[in-house]
Amino acid sequence: MRSMTGYGRGVASQGEVRATVDVRAVNHRFLDLKLRGAPLAAAIEDAIAARVRGAIERGSVAVSVNLAGGNALAGVRIDGDAADRAHRRLAELAARLALPGPDLARVLAQPGVVTSDDRFDDDGATGTSGAVLEALEAALVQLNEMRS
């Protein structure tokens, strides 16, 4: 019988963008997909979800995407006003609780601060989607080899 538990990593570069994708799967009755890591354009997230659903029937699957390179954040928008509001609210809460104020990572993690730019059309010029999907494919191959 085939195991539901496994791990795979894929790395791919296109243009100036280098993508590293880690896929972890553990036994689960249904397919439960969680996407973590770098903020991505909605079209890339949809492509990742479709590819994982096509490759894995069931399991709790975590896909982590890390990007590096010049245009790694193409298609991502940071809402400065939302960041200001999030920082202010987190700082007020921290002051009330006598804790240190929020760092940049905590502010960026708040809903609405980092969003995908739906106008982004990755035509290969940045290579973001190509690198991510190529790395994902390699990670899924490695995961399935481990699961066998």
What structural category characterises the helix and strand content? alpha+beta
Largest sheet data: 4 strands, mixed
| Tally of helical segments | 4
Name the helix and strand elements from N-terminus to C-terminus, one letter apiece: EEEHEEHHEH
Mean pLDDT: 84
Q: Kindly, what is the distance between the CA atoms of the first and last residues, rounded to a whole number of angstroms?
A: 8 Å
Structure, explained:
The protein has 148 residues and is an alpha+beta fold. The chain has four helices and six strands, in the order E-E-E-H-E-E-H-H-E-H. The protein has helices spanning 42-55, 80-96, 104-108, 128-147, and strands at 6-14, 17-26, 31-37, 59-68, 76-78, 114-116. The strands form two sheets. Strands 1-2-4-3 form a four-stranded mixed beta sheet. The protein has a two-stranded antiparallel sheet with strand order 5-6. The longest helix has 20 residues, at 128-147. The model is unreliable at 118-126 (pLDDT under 50).
Keywords:
globular, alpha+beta, 6 strands, 4 helices, 4-stranded mixed β-sheet, single chain, 148 residues
Element layout with pairings:
Blueprint: E1 6-14, E2 17-26, E3 31-37, H1 42-55, E4 59-68, E5 76-78, H2 80-96, H3 104-108, E6 114-116, H4 128-147
Parallel strand pairs: 3-4
Antiparallel strand pairs: 1-2, 2-4, 5-6
Helix pairs in contact: 1-4
